[in-house]
Structures are given as C-alpha cells and as structure tokens.
UniProtKB/TrEMBL annotation:
Class in the EC hierarchy, top level: isomerase
Pfam family of the protein (one): TIM
Keyword Ribonucleoprotein part of the UniProt annotation: no
Biological process (GO), any one: gluconeogenesis
GO cellular component, one term: cytosol
Organism in which the protein naturally occurs: freshwater metagenome
Name of the protein this chain belongs to: triose-phosphate isomerase
UniProt keyword annotations, A-Z: Cytoplasm, Gluconeogenesis, Glycolysis, Isomerase
C-alpha cells in the first residue's frame, strides 16, 4: 500500500503522496532551469506517475518566473511552490511578496512557519496563523511547518510542541481551505540526524488526532502530513511505509536531481 488511506465514516479517503523540495537560498534562475529540466527528464525516464505522487519544488522567489515559463513551455508536471508569503496582499511592505503575485505565477503551495523563519525571523505562532490566512485568501495551499527543538524534545517530549503549533496555525479561520502539515523536528533539519520512522509516524498520528479533535474527522482524514529533516533517497521509504506519513519535505537532498528523483520514486524502494 503506497498511498495513505484512512477510513472515515465508512468512506475511504486517499491522500496522494507529496514530495516537496525546499531549495532554501540556493540556485539562481539559470541554475533553477537546469535543475528542473534534469529532474523532469529523470522522472520521465523512470515513467513517474505524477497523479500518484505529486512532486513540488520551492525555488527562491527570483527563480519562480523562469521555472514557471519552463514548466509551461515544456508542459512539465512538476508543481511550483514558494518558500514564504506576506501576511498582507499589497501595500507599503518593503521586501515582502504577496500571495496574489505568487498565484499569478502558477504557484500552488507555499511554506509557512519553516523553522528557519521561526528562528531567524522571529516568526511566532500568530505570524504563522496570519500567513496561513493569507494563503487561504489568495488561493494557495499552505504547507504549515511545525517541529520541536532539541531542548523542547528533552523537556516536553516529541509531540507537544508540534501539536500546539498546528492548533495555533489553524485557529481562528472562518473556513479551512486545503492545507498540508510538515512535521520537521528542528534537531533533524540539515543535521544528518533523523527521527526514526516510528517516531515520525507517532507524531504525525498525534497531529492528525489533534486536527480531528479541533476540526472534525473529515478534515483530519483529508489532510496530508509530511515528515521532514535529513530525508534522503536511502531513508525515505522507511517514513512513507507508515500510513500516517503522506510525503516528505526535503531540503539539501532536493538540490540534486538524481537524489531528489530517487526520493520521488520511493514507491520503488518499498518492499511490501
Ligand atoms: P534538510 O532540510 O532535508 O536539509 O534536513 C529540511 C527542511 O528544512 O525542510
């Protein structure tokens, strides 16, 4: 079983796996074109079925127009995401990027609350809630990133902080549109340390239970919950074996077309 399927009121909900590549501040627009071209060729050589496993790249803002043009001209199936969004739609906010502009560039997903934004830019749960609202308002799907630091892991255990961050990001919206959660333990990002597949599955399960308790079982069953933190082609299958984990958010390994396409083809490594 490669898709995650949940029984919900006698109705079966299938969540399409999502493989997301967060390039962070790497690659100019020319390097971005080369990487997306190589990624698409590699996946098409492997007959990748994008309807069964979505592949999304999150280039820096300055690359998005170039990647959009390439995707449009060559009719590629790779989907575009952005790494951040302003909580405002327009106005005197120097340096910020509106979701309205991203939507015009065919961006489908936007990361909100990545731990690097929470740490380096002091983004609070309230900021993350407001950016989630901006994504909903402008027709983008937020990928809400949550996760505990090493200190929080030691003092509060693994799931308390990510669950509280999810509840905060989803609170106070008139209506919830589509959203995705990415559980990324901060201690596992860019460090080479990974949560075990069992630990990741437990936390993702707790997050889904919290969504069900706050927003109902239908929304919980339809929501994709990803794991992120030092994911590579050689460890991805362990995470995605669990029905609680619906995809991965990949940093470093998404900068290499062969490695990232190996991650997207995780179904090939799962021995059932
Ligand atoms: P990493 O980054 O895969 O390099 O650990 C993950 C992320 O920051 O989303």
């Amino acid at each position: 079983m490669n898709d995650s399927t949940t029984m919900n009121n006698a109705e079966t909900v299938t969540r399409i796996p999502l493989i997301a590549g967060n390039w962070k501040m790497n690659h100019d627009h020319l390097q971005a074109i080369a990487l997306v071209q190589k990624l698409s060729w590699t996946l098409s050589d492997a007959n990748h079925d994008y309807e069964k496993c979505e592949v999304v790249v999150f280039p820096p803002f300055t690359d998005i127009r170039s990647v959009q043009t390439l995707v449009g001209a060559d009719k590629l199936s790779v989907t575009l995401g952005a790494q951040d969004i302003s909580k405002f739609d327009s106005g005197a906010y120097t340096g910020e990027v509106s979701g309205v502009f991203l939507k015009k560039l065919d961006v489908k997903y936007v990361l909100v609350g990545h731990s690097e934004r929470r740490t380096n830019h002091h983004e609070t749960d309230q900021t993350v809630q407001e950016k989630t609202a901006a994504a909903f308002r402008t027709g983008l799907i937020p990928i809400i990133c949550v996760g505990e630091t090493l200190e929080e892991l030691e003092t509060q255990g693994q799931s308390a902080v990510p669950v509280a961050q999810v509840i905060a990001a989803l609170a106070g919206h008139q209506k919830l549109s589509d959203f995705v959660i990415a559980y990324e333990p901060v201690w596992a990002i860019g460090t080479g340390k990974v949560a075990t597949p069992e630990e990741a599955a437990i936390v993702c399960g707790k997050i889904r239970e919290a969504i069900a308790a706050e927003h109902g079982p239908e929304i919980a069953a339809a929501t994709r919950i990803l794991y992120g933190g030092s994911v590579k082609a050689n460890n991805v299958a362990g995470f995605l074996k669990s029905p609680e984990v619906d995809g991965v958010l990949v940093g470093g390994a998404s900068l290499d077309a062969d490695e990232f396409s190996g991650i997207a083809r995780f179904q090939k490594h799962i021995v059932l």
